[in-house]
Specification:
The chain has 195 residues and is mainly alpha-helical. The protein has 3 domains: 47 residues; 61 residues; 71 residues, no CATH class. 64% of the residues lie in helices and 0% in strands. The protein is built from 10 helices and no strands. It is elongated.
Length: 195
Amino acid sequence: MAMISLDRKIHAVKQYYAGSGSLNEIAAKFGVHRSTLQKWLLNYELFGEKGLCHRAGKHHYPAIVKQQAAESYLSGQMSIEAVCKKYQLRSRSQLEQWVMMYNGQKGFRSPGGRRGVQLTMASYEERKAAVEYCIAHEKNYKLTAEYSGFTYQQIYGWVQRYQKAGLEGFLIVEIYQSQHGVPGYRQMQIILERR
C-alpha cells in the first residue's frame, strides 16, 4: 500500500472532527482501515499535525514506562486509548505488545538493557493451589498472581485448562507437559479423550 501524504491525513482528521461522517465513512472515503484513522486521530490529539508525519525508526521507552503503561491498562480503570494518551504512545499495538509481555512476564527492556523477569516453573501442587485460590476469589487473576508469585498469564492458562478438563484432566495434561513439553490444542483434545 502506498504511503498516504501528510495533507491527506490532516484532511481526513479535520473531516472527522467537523462531523462530516462517521469513523467508518471517513476511513472508507480515504481508503484506509478504521483502525488507521483511529491511530491518526490519537496521534493528532497527542502531537498535533506533527503526530501525523511519518517517523523513521522506532522510539525507545524505558522499562518502567512500559510496565506502568501495561499495569494502567490491566487495572481496568483506563481504556487503551486513555493509556496511549497518558504515556504518549503513537500506536495501540505498541501498548498491546507491552501488555502481552507483561502478562507473559517475558520482561521489559530499557533501550540497550537486558531482559527482566522470566517465567517461574511450578509443580502440579503449586498450580492446583493457584487455580483453587483464583477460582475461590472469583477469577481475580491479578490477585492470584500477587499471592502465588506466578504470572497473570500462567494462572489464566491453568484456570482455563482446569475448567475445560477438570482436576483429573488437568493432572493428565500436566504430566504430559512435564514429559513431552506443551501440547497443542489438538494434542490436548486427544489426551483428554483417552482418559
